[in-house]
Amino acid sequence: MAKYVIVGASAAGISAVEAIREVDPVGTVTVISEELCPQYSRPMISDLVSGKADFKKMLCRDSQFWVKNNVEALTGQKAVSLNLKEKYVVLENGNCVSFEKLLIATGGKPFVPKIEGAEKNGVFTFTKLADAERLSAMLEKAQNAVVVGGGLIGVSVTEALVKRGLKVTLVELQDKILSLILDATASEIVADLMEIAGVTIVTGQSVQRILGKPEDESSVGGVVLTNGEEVQCDIVIIAIGVVPRTELVSGTDVKTNRGILVDRFMRTSAPDVYASGDVAEAYDFVYGENRLLPLWPLAQLEGKVAGYNMAGKKAEYPGGTVMSSLKYFGIPIISIGLVNPKNPHDYEILTCYDPTRRVYKKLVLKGNAIVGILLLNDIERAGIMFNLMKNRVNVKKFKQALLSDNFGLATLPPSLRKTLYLEV
Amino acid sequence: MKRIVAKEEFCIGCGLCEVYCTVQHSQSKDIIKAYNRENPRPISRVRREVNKPVSFAVQCKHCEDAPCVVACLSGAMKRDESTGLVLHDAEKCMGCWTCIMVCPYGAIKMDASSKVVSKCDFCFGLEMPACVANCPNGALVLMEVKP
């Protein structure tokens, strides 16, 4: 009877449990999680703050998940070190949990740069339930917020705060928001919508200092931007990005770069030790190399692959790439792969833009294969394009139809349809 | 396991599959009321694709290894263990559009509210899905496929 131990019970950990149980119903599975009820959707924490979701809705597996899957769930416990030679995990309370196969799915943690005043009451990061609950509890008394970082997390929390009636200033170091997943045109469309909703966007700046309130130095009263300008606020949210939580493997044989390096089977460099999710650096099929891709759907896919392999069913990770879908400020967006290449002349770029409908579509091609997809408002055929991209299909013959309003499976040449899809 | 299979060679592109899908997912289940009175009118979960002379209907294939289930951010997209169907729980859906991004058939849509997604539910509970039952030329058929 195999003994599986999983450290971390968010997207990757949960998916691994399901995959292991699909293959091995009897082996013992132990999950170690710092959170008491970890099986909730982290991307939904902004909906908790806005009031759109309660915790019950956020549960992405039901409350009986551990029981149903016959898992020993050590919740509210932290793994602090590993002994790979004797194969056990040491918990903070001193207990040891021995394993035959280990999955490290410890995720990421918010990156917080050194900012003077960051210890003040009212400074938050925003990646987990506890952050959202603490933030929510402060909102009744707050009027102004500064969000540091105009990426996905920054934009999502900004929308939630706007919905709760706060005046938000979003501070982004780059010259545009969502710079990792949008191009200039798309970024401007989103920025316009955010400004219409009352958000002040400041680009090319960061926060150099967090100020206290005149009556209470320990509580946030404002920030000083790098240009010296002051912005008054009651709350500061630092949403610059996440870094892998690799502490557990430091000093072990597990090789790391920025994250834990894994092969296409989610194996680390140490025998019987696997890694998945935000902590891992797995294969990116656009770049053809391992990269950090801290994204929920990829964490679930990686966890599933790891689980299968741990339980003895060979499964190869097809690879991921940057892929995000956004729902914020009333504009649906899907962005996949290389949407904003550094050397645009090396690529063929197809675009169409209808400003009145705020429909913007862009495809980036290299050698007649799709390497980047960016869609605003008209997103429903994104998956068909993504399938062409994943399969590196030569789109030369139907290139022009890709961005047309009625693009679909019927647009594809019949022979291609038959190879890509079993039917239709 | 029974699945809906499109027969391209028989499809006349009439769009009745879309009409009857809309009606089946309406409150009234009445074609006139569904189209004239229900606001918003429910969307059709099947899509007629026309690129003359080719036409066919596309709906969720309830894939064996469904990318939408693996990708779902909220746990709303699930495989029903007893039927093997991929079912969507609108109550749990957060409207993040991740499933739309990964569906190779483009078979998942935003529902009429634009707040959650919607897709073929195989007319759960009906013996014959409405699109199949009302296809006038046998271009949508229910077939036994290997699980």
Strand and helix map with partners:
The complex is a heterodimer of chains A (424) and B (147).
Chain A: E1 3-7, H1 11-23, E2 28-33, H2 45-50, H3 55-58, H4 65-68, E3 71-75, E4 79-83, E5 88-91, E6 96-98, E7 101-104, E8 108-110, E9 123-125, H5 129-139, E10 144-148, H6 152-163, E11 167-172, H7 184-196, E12 200-203, E13 207-212, E14 220-225, E15 230-232, E16 235-238, E17 242-244, E18 260-261, E19 273-275, E20 280-284, E21 289-292, H8 296-310, E22 323-326, E23 333-337, E24 348-354, E25 359-366, E26 369-376, H9 382-390, H10 414-420
Parallel strand pairs in A: 1-2, 1-7, 2-3, 7-19, 9-16, 10-11, 10-16, 11-12, 18-20
Antiparallel strand pairs in A: 4-5, 5-6, 8-17, 13-14, 14-15, 20-21, 22-23, 23-26, 24-25, 25-26
Chain B: E1 2-6, H1 16-24, H2 31-36, E2 47-51, E3 54-58, H3 67-71, E4 77-79, E5 86-88, H4 98-102, E6 109-110, E7 117-118, H5 130-133, E8 140-144
Antiparallel strand pairs in B: 1-8, 2-3, 4-5, 6-7
Overall pLDDT of chain B: 95
Radius of gyration of chain B: 15 Å
Number of helices of chain B: 5
- What is the helix fraction of residues of chain A, given as a range? 10-25%
Strand order of the largest sheet of chain B: 1-8
Number of domains of chain B: 2
Task: Outline the structure in words.
- The complex is a heterodimer of chains A (424) and B (147).
- Chain A has ten helices and 26 strands.
- By secondary structure, chain A is of the alpha/beta class.
- Chain A has a five-stranded parallel beta sheet.
- In chain A, helix 7 links the parallel strand 11 (167-172) and strand 12 (200-203).
- The relative contact order of chain A is 0.13.
- Chain B contains five helices and eight strands, in the order E-H-H-E-E-H-E-E-H-E-E-H-E.
- Chain B has helices at residues 16-24, 31-36, 67-71, 98-102, 130-133; strands at 2-6, 47-51, 54-58, 77-79, 86-88, 109-110, 117-118, 140-144.
- In chain B, strands 1-8 form a two-stranded antiparallel sheet.
- Chain B is globular, with a radius of gyration of 15 Å.
- Chain A binds chain B through residues 15, 41, 43-44, 47, 52-53, 57-61, 296-297, 300-301, 304, 323, 325-327, 332, 334, 336, 379-384, 386-387, 406, 408-411, 414, 420-421, 423-424, and chain B through 5-6, 8, 47, 49-51, 54-56, 58, 61, 70-75, 91-92, 94-98, 100-110, 114.
